[in-house]
Amino acid sequence: MAATVTVTAQDDPYLWLEDVEGERAIEWVEAHNKKSLERLTTDSRFESIQQGLLQDYNASDKIAYGKLLGGAVHNFWQDETHVRGLWRRASWRSYTASEPKWVEILDIDKLAADEGENWVYKERQCLPPDFGLCLISLSRGGGDAVVMREFDAVLKQFVAGGFVTEEAKQGSVWIDKNTLLISTDFGINTMTDSGYPNEVRVWKRGYPLASARTVHTGDLTDVGSFPFASHRPEGSVIGVVRAPDFFTEIVYVLKGDKDEEEMRELYLPRTISFKGIFHHNAILTMRESWRLKSGKTIPAGSLISVNIEDAIDGIPENSLRVVFTPDTTSAIDDVAIGQNRIFINLLDTVTGQMLTATESADGWDITPTDTPENGSISLISADEWSDAALINFESFLQPSTLYAIYRGSEPATIQALPDRFDATGMIAEQEFAVSKDGTRIPYFIIRTEGAPMDGTTPTILYGYGGFEVSLPPIYLNGPSKAWLEAGGAYVIANIRGGGEFGPAWHQAALKENRQHAFDDFIAVAEHLVETGLTSKQHLGIRGGSNGGLLMGAMLTQRPDLFKAVICAVPLLDMMRYHTLLAGASWMGEYGNPDVPEERDYILKYSPYQNLKTDTEYPEVFFYTSTKDDRVHPGHARKMAAKMEDMGKPVLYYENTEGGHSAAANLQQRAFTDALQVVYALQKLKD
């Protein structure tokens, strides 16, 4: 194992800004917030933009998306009255009749007020088949670390003497009503270098957590080990997914007599993505091709099923079936498992299709679902106890429509979102740019049909390009919608590193090939200028998280190409990213800076190290969150401070709560979104 490179204050004079809650660092944050907010919030356009966005976010006619649990629909609702959110449920019948009769279960605003805590609701795990007992995860301020508490959804109260844990990055699932499988911070050597649980235990009701029996221990260099539970009509499967890195998985299931169960490994390739359990089969997608002992090859990108017992016995080929294999222009974007069918969300040239797969005597039958074309399909929820599903369709200019599917019926409309902006005279089109190595890169443009092609259109180009994340057409909202209403054009680049065309598209930008993603984005930007839509004086770029790294690379590699840069919750110091919070978990994507040959190629693009005093840079608007416990706010802080000391133009805003989204509620989201739009207007339109 490579030795970790130690960085001192002499090497990095801005190291003190990594002290998240340090007095000196917070003073720096407050001073920069004051300066940035004085400029942006006093703009005459800020208040109307913020209120327009907040009106959309709090609208009573929003679609109440729900999770299907045993024939009921559970919804988490936020509006101006329920800022932190309200958990409620309705029957399937009333929900699909578009007249849901909601039963309130838990009011997070009231809970936070009663307990004097800054609770942000994160998720719940409810035990089938009645889904009455639930494990609620609550975050203080919106970070990934949570407190887990047992809640009775029938009595609508926390269970006295029930399961409760201390705050940590953790996960837990039900084995039965008196037993949990839990991974959390149990003390020394139970959390990985990435900050996620490494140890999994069986915890029985009435016993202290410390006495829980350990059934799985991974390696400290793993991303983490995460429990799962599949409770279905045909039986339950409990297990652990161990992630050695972000793109490999080892699946274990709990087997044996009660109180003596042990984890048994499924002997499968590690380059899989585990999707769940269906009729005693593990459902998986393949990140790489799998050559079987028979000589047959399962192509990368395929969805397959393998009997669990065969996989435990080391003979997965005996029952392996290919459910579906995409062609060269398509990729599986999502999978959801119902009671008697599997739902497959397919992207074809970055637009959505919905397929269903049912078992047959000789394999799997694939049936297309009757949904609209030229947009995006989302799998909202599938019910493993009633064979119902909820799916959503939208496009850039067409609002979302929610459909229900029940027992193989064609989709029936439940609710359609009303227009949030006037799309009259607007068009959305797909174009292609050619990257440095000759690869054709698709991108979408949303603009007014009569936009003059003389380089004067204010344009924002958005990108991500990592972690298999696809960017299909979705209805414009938030800052993109406000930008379009202000007369700008909005562009989404489907660069390599994403999942738009399957595993190969993602893997083309991994580690030493990261520059491909950057070259793709540059090619799209240059194509926008060459075709006359915009010019360098009117072109801005926007991205967050891994997309924030993309923004940093654009800033340092092509500062001449852009007039404005919005860089959100970013990764920027790639020499230290693996030592900060969850950073070590992403070495499968970027590489390890402690390995000399990997350090060399990371150093070539690491934005923080590639700033130059003699280069003119466009003004950058950095924003992040103090409570982001995934991507360290030190990245944005240090980059901003270094640029300022070089005399480069910078705006910086840090929300003091909100986690990786940089917003803990809809009010904060509207505020942060409005800051971005005003900044872009000042730089690209004024």
Describe this structure in words.
With 686 residues, the protein is α+β, with helices and mostly antiparallel strands. The chain contains 13 helices and 38 strands. Strand 17 (272-278) and strand 18 form a beta hairpin. The mean pLDDT is 95.
What's the quick description here?
With 686 residues, the chain is of the alpha+beta class. It has 13 helices and 38 strands.
Question: What layout of secondary structure does this protein have?
Answer:
Layout: H1 23-40, H2 46-57, E1 66-69, E2 72-77, E3 86-91, H3 92-96, E4 103-107, H4 108-115, E5 119-126, E6 133-140, E7 147-152, E8 157-158, E9 171-176, E10 179-183, E11 199-204, E12 213-217, E13 224-232, E14 235-245, E15 248-255, E16 262-265, E17 272-278, E18 281-286, E19 290-291, E20 297-298, E21 303-307, H5 308-312, E22 321-324, E23 330-337, E24 342-348, E25 351-360, E26 363-368, E27 376-382, E28 388-394, E29 401-406, E30 412-416, E31 426-434, E32 440-448, E33 459-462, H6 478-485, E34 489-493, H7 503-507, H8 515-530, E35 539-544, H9 546-557, E36 564-568, H10 587-590, H11 596-603, E37 619-625, H12 634-645, E38 650-655, H13 666-684
